[in-house]
Amino acid sequence: MLIHFGGFMVKGLEGSSQQCRELLDKRWPEMRQQLLDWWEVHGRKDIAIKPWMFTADGRWPEPHEDLSPYGIWIAEVMLQQTQLRVMRPYWEQWMLVLPTVQHLAAAEERQVLLLWQGLGYYSRARRLHQAARQLAASPLPSSLEAWQAVPGIGRTTAGSILSSALNRPVPILDGNVRRVLARLHACLEPPHRAQASFWQWSEALLDPLRPRDFNQAVMDLGALVCTPRTPSCQLCPWQSSCAAYAAGEPSHFPVKDASKPIPFQVIGVGVVLNEAGEVLIDQRLNEGLLGGMWEFPGGKQEPGEAIEATIARELREELAIEVQVGEQLIALDHAYSHKKLRFVVHLCRWIAGEPKPLASQQVCWVKPEDLSDYPFPAANARMIAALIDHLRADMLSQRS
Ligand code: SF4
């Protein structure tokens, strides 16, 4: 197959990658300008969209102006696994409550997790908190190496903080940038198998005079034009330099590994009430996606096991208590990127045994109206709403 690319004819998709790369190397200066011209008109240069990228008096910074790295650091960590439109209100609330690294260092972990509640991947919040306690006594780092030594910060987050805050010429490689580069080069390997090449391309392409604007511009191109499923190539400033467009198959890139089936598990959950009307909750160990969050106790259903038996067994194994498993309160499905869970939640009556945190950090009895003082993962928040509705309906039926 012959591909028309940047005024040249190159042969076949396989052969085109190497030839396209050589042609691209010669075109970097022109391409930088094309992208920055596009971004000046179409980029997300809006204080309502990325408030952390603006000066205190509400302007996009000039190349010689620095921004505070703290707000950018918080935004970048939130953006690691959460979309811009979802994380923005969380960032605004966070900056109201914890406006400086010293405020974050002095905060209690429960307050930090409550501010993060709903964003998922809670280890991010715990690592931010831990890092703030290490960094609060001195100015925030100003080198790539020092930022990469901070808990929870990898190369792309460190590069993003430095280029955004201090206009340093350091490359980034977030999901948007990776997709644009994969298409520009028609890369035949999945990005995670060709990391070194992707970093080289991001570095070579970066505008040395306007790195802050350039990195923002590539991310905006990926978010607005070179989108995952149907890229708008007719609007793209890099169309004439793009190997995937020349091949006629932009959405085939980035190349992916064959996907594995996502496992499905049923989780039995017990909402245990005592005679005082309090409910039993436990705090997860500080590990994994939901580390440090509070939850109603429970665990995985074994093959052939009735869900009531699962709940009674899990509560015995994890809390050393005996319960009578009652009616179902709610059943709900929750999907993570790597697994799907169905939670089957039953009301339970506490019969015997002082609760012990055998598989958690701590357990406590809480009045249902005080549950909002504890950070819970999203699925548990729906269980709490169902419990409050149930208790309210119960109270009304007793009155009538
Ligand atoms: Fe993406 Fe299309 Fe632009 Fe290539 S031409 S970078 S595929 S939007």
Describe the structure.
This protein is α+β, with helices and mostly antiparallel strands and 400 residues long. It contains 14 helices and nine strands. Strands 6-3-8-7 form a four-stranded mixed beta sheet, sandwiched between helices. A three-stranded antiparallel beta sheet has the order 5-4-9, with no helix packed on it. A hairpin with a 2-residue loop joins strand 1 and strand 2. Helix 2 (69-79) runs antiparallel to helix 8 and helix 9 (175-184) crosses helix 11 (211-224). The radius of gyration is 26 Å and the shape is elongated. The structure holds iron/sulfur cluster. The site of iron/sulfur cluster has 14 residues, from helix 9 and helix 12.
Describe the structure in brief:
The chain has 14 helices and nine strands. Bound molecules: iron/sulfur cluster (SF4).
Number of strands: 9
Distinct ligands, ions and cofactors found in the model: iron/sulfur cluster
Q: Sketch the topology as an H/E string, one letter per element.
A: EEHHHHHHHHHHHHEEEEHEEEH
Report the radius of gyration as a whole number of Å.
26 Å
